[in-house]
Amino acid sequence: TESLIKNISNRTNRIHTTFQMAGAQTGRFSSTDPNLQNIPIKSNNGKEIRKAFISEEGYELVCFDYSQIELRLLSEIANIKALKNAFFNGLDIHKLTASQIFNTPIDNITEDQRRNSKAINFGIIYGLSAFGLAKQLGISRTEAKNYIDSYHAQYPGIQKYMDEMQYFLSKNGFVETLFGRRINIAGYQDKNTMVRNYAIRQAINAPIQGTAADIIKRAMIKYSL
């Protein structure tokens, strides 16, 4: 809140941010001076801070959201028919994944199982490792690895997509969104293994997150017209 207060305009008595169209590597909007995209929401303090965001008289604040857009794009890009059908039929995608990973009827999935599969569903897009999943869920690394292995066994197209992106990156030094927008990836030839692995994770995530950014920007243009 200190940085917010320091950025109050003397002219308008409001806070004005700058949105960067290409500030993030994937093409997502970024916000600077100050960053208004990372205002907390889950804590009580965060909810109080958000009460300060009000529209001017005669205007309204509106919210648009694509439900699970990156998971939907993953199912499209990696051609995962089970996930596509689940989205098309309005199923709980996390329960479906839990059902397949734990070999349990979808109606018998517990909240803990759903929570674990949700962490995998979203984490896999960002190259989640067994170590990272174990830390996130408070389980052993072996158990986390078994979850991830089971996930890939159920959705082999995801591993195929990951391998294809790694190969494409090694040949070209960039990846592309579904709209053909190029995203350059640095460090994929670095001698440092950690740097190379990070570049590979970027190459896997960028087409998904980048395509989501493309879709959202197109939607904003259409709505404004």
What is the 3D shape? globular
Task: Please provide the ordered H/E string of secondary-structure elements.
Answer: HEEHHHHHHHHEEH
> How would you classify the helix and strand content by structural class?
mainly alpha
Per DSSP, what share of the residues sits in E-state strands of 2 or more residues?
A: 5-15%
How much helicity do the residues have?
A: 40-55%
Number of helices: 10
Over all CA atoms, what is the radius of gyration?
20 Å
- Mean pLDDT figure: 89
Task: Say how many strands there are.
Answer: 4
- Model regions low in confidence, pLDDT < 50 over at least 5 residues: none
Largest sheet: 2 strands, antiparallel
For the termini, the CA-CA separation is 35 Å
Report strand order across the widest sheet.
1-2
Could you explain how this protein is built, in words?
This protein is mainly alpha-helical and 225 residues long. Helices cover 54% and strands 5% of the residues. It contains 10 helices and 4 strands. It has helices at 2-6, 44-50, 69-77, 81-88, 93-101, 111-123, 130-137, 141-154, 156-172, 193-224, and strands spanning 18-20, 30-32, 174-176, 182-184. Strands 1-2 form a two-stranded antiparallel ribbon. Strands 3-4 form a two-stranded antiparallel sheet. Helix 3 (69-77) crosses helix 10, helix 5 packs across helix 6 (111-123) and helix 7 crosses helix 8 (141-154). The longest helix has 32 residues, at 193-224. It is globular and about 60 Å long. The model has no long low-confidence stretch (mean pLDDT 89).
